[in-house]
Write a structure and sequence with these properties.
Number of strands: 12
Structural class: alpha/beta
Oligomer: single chain
Strand order of the largest sheet: 7-6-5-8-1-9-12-11
Largest sheet: 8 strands, mixed
Length: 200
């Protein structure tokens, strides 16, 4: 059965970017290693430590579709029309970017009726045997608060931001209990933590 996995790199104090969308050293571990990450669409030169590369290869190879927010789409220019992983990207947005040069040719769908619709469409594309990857932040937080996330995959980086954009967004006020991590993998300057969300 397809899982919805909320995943991102995060600071020790729970932020995935500064208020002006700078990630600082949070993503350094993706590029400063000596082992290529071979899963996904390799249009980006990801090279992590051997431990991180092995972990990420396994996680990314399961991704069938991604769900992201409009802000990430704008910052990355939709990775020039090539999904980082999976077959299709669903972008939660209030309006379709009519001037994007890859509109109509890239496997990107712009969803204007909310994150629940985007996840439902992504699960259909992913099928029963692959996962939906959901980025943290505003859209991820909305999905988490709505009970649409099955698992959380955090790349915990030893940096403290103090303020910025939260991994879990700003949308929920309840405590949500997670089981003990199903995996704890220590890379170089990153600890990969994978959790299943406790139901009930």
């Amino acid at each position: 059965m397809s899982r919805v996995v909320m995943a991102d790199a995060v600071s020790l104090d729970g932020f995935l970017a500064t208020a002006d969308d700078q990630v600082g050293p949070l993503h350094d571990f993706y590029f400063h290693g000596d082992t290529p990450i071979t899963a996904g669409n390799r249009h980006l030169s990801f090279k992590a430590s051997a431990v991180s590369a092995k972990y990420l290869d396994r996680q990314w190879s399961r991704i069938g579709a991604m769900v992201i927010g409009r802000r990430l789409f704008d910052i990355t220019n939709g990775w020039d029309g090539v999904p980082v992983a999976g077959d299709r990207v669903f972008v939660v947005t209030h309006s379709v970017p009519t001037d994007w040069e890859h509109l109509g040719t890239a496997p990107f769908t712009f969803v204007t009726d909310g994150v629940e619709s985007a996840i439902a469409q992504a699960k259909e594309v992913a099928g029963p045997d692959r996962d939906v990857s959901l980025n943290g932040g505003d859209v991820g937080g909305q999905a988490f608060a709505a009970g649409l996330v099955d698992e959380v995959d955090m790349a915990l980086v030893p940096v403290v931001f103090g303020s910025g954009k939260r991994f879990f967004g700003e949308h929920f006020t309840e405590h949500v209990l997670l089981d003990d991590p199903t995996e704890v993998v220590q890379g170089e300057r990153v600890t990969h933590l994978h959790y299943k969300i406790r139901n009930g």
